[in-house]
Write a structure and sequence with these properties.
- The protein is of the alpha/beta class.
- Helix 1 runs parallel beside helix 4.
- It is globular.
Length: 240
């Protein structure tokens, strides 16, 4: 993924997250693969530079990716990764940061940094231990592991594996469930779970209080109360 591609990706993500009419975001790859990772061909430009120059070049490259990585981590809407083909190196951060990961049987996750004499980046060392545990994260990254779809599911990196021709329908079914949920409660739930990474118990409890108060002020809460009393299915955000 080149800096130019990353910039376009960043802008599109920001637009989608800011659009009120969009309730969830699906990330998919083009050309049969999810994401190819770093722009290795561009690294050839480092030939002939001193070790210090190479280091400073890489610092600059990675720092330009920070806004996109931070944006990906702060997206308010449910984020779905539709994974097919290869996901390599830094591109794995997009899978790790997603809220739902659906892969088809062609998916292959490659922890390739060590193969290039590098450490994981783009937040991989932040997410991976939280998803699979520190020991498993160390094993995957130090060994340069390559996992197929079923192995990735077994490791907890993928939620569901489907046939290639079933991926789009599975994603559509998942988005329909998300769209049927109360929007504010969904957003507040994601926000609270993200906050819990760093909060104390007391701070998290207080955040839950405020989140619940926000939800109670929304019409979807009263729709749920009325639906319960009337013994019918609640119709969140679509009561006409």
């Amino acid at each position: 993924m080149s800096p130019q591609m990353l910039e376009v990706f960043h802008q599109k993500l920001r637009e989608l997250d800011a659009e009120p009419g969009i309730r969830c975001i699906v990330i998919d790859g083009a050309g049969g693969n999810f994401v190819a990772g770093g722009d290795i061909k561009a690294w050839a430009q480092l030939k002939g530079k001193t070790p210090g120059e190479r280091s400073e070049d890489f610092r600059a490259r990675l720092r330009t990716a920070l806004p996109t990585a931070e944006l990906f981590d702060s997206i308010e809407k449910p984020l779905i990764a539709a994974v097919r083909g290869y996901s390599i190196g830094a591109g794995l951060s997009f899978i790790l940061a997603a809220d739902f990961v659906i892969a088809d049987q062609t998916a292959m996750l490659v922890f390739a940094h060590i193969r290039m004499g590098l450490v994981p980046d783009m937040g991989v060392t932040y997410y991976l231990p939280r998803v699979v545990g520190e020991r498993r994260a160390l094993q995957l990254t130090l060994l340069g592991s390559q996992l197929n779809a079923e192995q990735a599911k077994e490791a907890g990196l993928v939620d569901e594996v489907v046939a290639p021709d079933a991926l789009e329908d599975t994603i559509a079914g998942l988005t329909a469930k998300i769209l049927a949920a109360p929007a504010r409660a969904a957003a507040e739930t994601k926000r609270l779970l993200r906050m819990s990474r760093h909060n104390t118990f007391a701070a998290q409890f207080s955040a839950e209080v405020e989140g619940a108060a926000s939800c109670v002020g929304d019409e979807d809460f009263m729709e749920a109360v009325n639906a319960f009393s009337e013994r019918r299915q609640a119709k969140f955000g679509r009561r006409s």
